[in-house]
Amino acid sequence: MKKTAVLSGLMALTLLLGGCSAQQAGGETPTTPPAAAATADPAEKTTGVGFYFDTVVTITLYGADDTLMEDIWAACKRYENMLSKTVEGSDVSRINNAHGQTVTVDAETWNVLSEAKKLNRLTGGAFAITIAPLTAQWDFTGGTNRMPTDEERIAALPLVDDEQLTLGENNTVTLPAGMQIDLGGIAKGSGMIHPNLATMLVFLTTDCAISAPMLHAALTGDVSDTFNMVSVDGDTSTNDMLSVMANGLAGNAEITEEGADFTAFMQALNTVTVYLCRCIAGDGEGATKLLECKVSGAETLDIAKTVAKSVICSSLTKAAMFGADANWGRVLCAIGYSGAPVDVNKIDVQFASKAGTILVCENGAGVDFSEEQAKRILLEHEIEILIDLKSGSAASTAWGCDLTYDYVKINGDYRT
Fold this sequence. Notes:
Elements: E1 4-7, H1 34-37, E2 39-40, E3 45-52, E4 55-62, H2 66-83, H3 91-96, E5 103-104, H4 107-122, H5 132-135, H6 150-156, E6 166-167, E7 172-174, E8 186-189, E9 200-206, H7 212-223, E10 240-246, H8 260-282, E11 290-298, H9 301-313, H10 315-322, H11 328-337, E12 348-353, E13 356-362, E14 365-366, H12 371-378, E15 382-388, E16 394-401, H13 405-412
Parallel strand pairs: 9-10, 11-15
Antiparallel strand pairs: 1-8, 2-3, 3-4, 5-7, 6-7, 11-16, 12-13, 12-15, 13-14
Helix pairs in contact: 7-8, 9-11
């Protein structure tokens, strides 16, 4: 299976698995340092193996010079020295061992903690980064895998509270004695991503108390608008899985029916799944850009989804985005062959990024626009393709990536 490891300090989806083994000193591999593990073959494929965040990480680069591999390991080491709770002297380790005293940390660490607290609030406390005292009772690291008593779990619950983590001015952090921070997350980027059947494995965890039928309803209600709207290359695979697990330890009244609590859980779940969709799409094989196609003004939701998915799957559109070419005709072409019943004479198309927004098509026809401005907009890493069908109120979003030389290199040399 094709895999690309992505380290993210913001995704708190695998907290229950955090810190499962002892950290080796210095971010070295179990046998050799990362630099010594890198080798190049005649096809310009370089592979390196390292040990970071308690995990053996294998990275393969195609057509890259040796300095890029060195930069990747340097980045892994830097983030580990910021965020790993098992590396002595890391920012998180210093916070956990400060016994309630204020600690000054790196600005990037402070920002990660701030974003993590926001995510926890958005999910109603389902993804607390201070869950370490509770998970430690299972002794995953020690290898005993014991089952704590109800009394032990209840006693640890007051220590699982991100609101007690205080972020002050000048990158200062204060955590009450006895509490610990544990950050972790993995997202897989690859090819053959085109759900329903894709080379995609997703595992979601929560401590929310919710019945199995309602958890299933939440997931199935979300997936059609999130993971099934992702496409990297239009190819599918039989290795497709999405799992959600809830242990019920949050202490909330169990959600057993639709209502305000179920709606809040659905919103929290969607916040996480959309984030993962963007990660998977943006980390597609050889990708340099994340593409987000937003369709509005559709007569029905099915029409909006069909149009958005057709555009995000268009090889010509993906190639144009790689070249920062504002070729709106390729967008209309993809809409046309989607089979969706739309009125081409009403369609507006815009391209947008953090560099600005530009109208390139209005009522199905091209308009005068600045090619220089369009180029600046499309040179950004994240690109929005905005389509207004002007035929109704339904809307949908799909995620994909550009089509690059490296995608061909990777798949032209896959078996070797």
